[in-house]
Amino acid sequence: MNRYKYQVNDNRYVYIPIFSIGVKLVCLVVVISYGLSYSESAVRALSMTPGYFWPPHFYLWTAFTHCFLEIHWWEVVVDIVTIVLVGKLLEPLWGALEMVTFFAVVNVGTAIVCAVFYYFLYMVSYNTELLFEVHIHGLAGYLAGVAVAVKQAMPDHILHRTPFGKFTNRNIPLSVFGLSFILWAVGLVEGSYCTMFGR
After folding, report:
1. Are 148 and 173 in contact (CB under 8 A)?
2. What mean pLDDT comes out for the span 176-180?
């Protein structure tokens, strides 16, 4: 606990959790990008649009920038809580470099898989809105990756006992996936959020 303890005055101490520079940087960029979400041109430039990801446009940078852009403030809160929990739960086990690698691989992989998914949906339906009106953005894919990583890295803990059985950390990925569909059904998140989580 001493690494969180800082002396302010003679007898007063403040407890400040220390996070790595990576956690702080990602949180800061997510908050700044949320401010950019009020600009339609910034949303088009930073979010991954499946029709612009492939030739002839090749907006390849969106595979790296889509994860930082959130449209709704509650998604920003979920992203920051997720990043902080990763900093507390997984970063001590894996190290900072592995966490950055995990962040990059999961988010770029999510962008590519979602682009292919929407391209195949277009080939089946011939609906051009799937290519040019869908904007993939946010850390939903990372949230799914973190849920699976916590399930695999942490021991099996009972989080809550219900009349139907025990709810453990092994149940978190499927529960959050189901919750994303409920949030989509009531209109709190876009359909791409479920696609990113389920990839």
Report:
1. yes
2. 85
Which residue has 């949320």 as its token pair? 34
Reading the block at residue 192, the tokens are 């791409």
Q: Check whether the bond before 163 is cis (ω within 30° of 0).
A: no
CB 154 within 8 A of CB 173: no
Lowest-confidence segment of 10-14, 41-45, 115-119, 158-162 by average pLDDT: 10-14
Q: At what angle do helices 73-89 and 21-36 cross, to 10 degrees?
A: 170
What residue ranges do the domains of the chain occupy?
A: 20-198
User: First CA to last CA across the chain, in angstroms?
Assistant: 39
Distance CA 29, CA 25 (A): 6
State the burial class of residue 176 (Cβ atoms within 10 Å of its Cβ: 0-12, 13-18, 19+): middle
In angstroms, the CA 88 to CA 64 distance is: 24
* pTM for the whole structure: 0.80
Integer Cα distance of 152 and 160 in angstroms: 19
Domain 20-198 part of CATH 1.20.1540: yes
- What is the spatial distance between Cα 11 and Cα 92, in angstroms, rounded to a whole number? 31
Output phi, psi for 139, to 5 deg.
-105, 30
- Is the pLDDT confidence value at 55 over 80? yes
DSSP-assigned letter for residue 16: -
What is the C-alpha to C-alpha distance for residues 198 and 51, in angstroms, rounded to an integer?
Answer: 20
